[in-house]
Amino acid sequence: MSNEETGRLSAGIDEETLQWILKNLDGLKYGTVHITVHQGKIVQIDRTEKIRFDK
């Protein structure tokens, strides 16, 4: 992803953090990516994935 493409998404987010977010979204079919922010800075990224089994 070029800087131009990520510029709108990454306002104030460094490249390493943005890559972590994208990595956690990659391949996620069901679940959540929870980003915790303290004093305007991302301090934690949690990924919860749900796996659904056919009955």
Secondary-structure map with pairings?
Elements: H1 3-7, H2 15-25, E1 31-38, E2 41-49
Antiparallel strand pairs: 1-2
Short description:
This protein has 55 residues and is α+β, with helices and mostly antiparallel strands. The protein is built from two helices and two strands, in the order H-H-E-E. The chain is elongated.
Low-confidence runs of at least 5 consecutive residues: none
Total strand count, please? 2
What is the helix/strand order? Answer: HHEE
Shape: elongated
In order across it, which strands form the biggest sheet? 1-2
Explain this structure to me?
The chain is α+β, with helices and mostly antiparallel strands. The protein is built from two helices and two strands; from the N terminus they run H-H-E-E. It has helices at 3-7, 15-25; strands at residues 31-38, 41-49. A two-stranded antiparallel ribbon has the order 1-2. Strand 1 (31-38) and strand 2 (41-49) form a beta hairpin. The radius of gyration is 14 Å and the shape is elongated.
Which descriptors would you attach to this protein?
55 residues, two-stranded antiparallel sheet, 2 strands, 29% helix
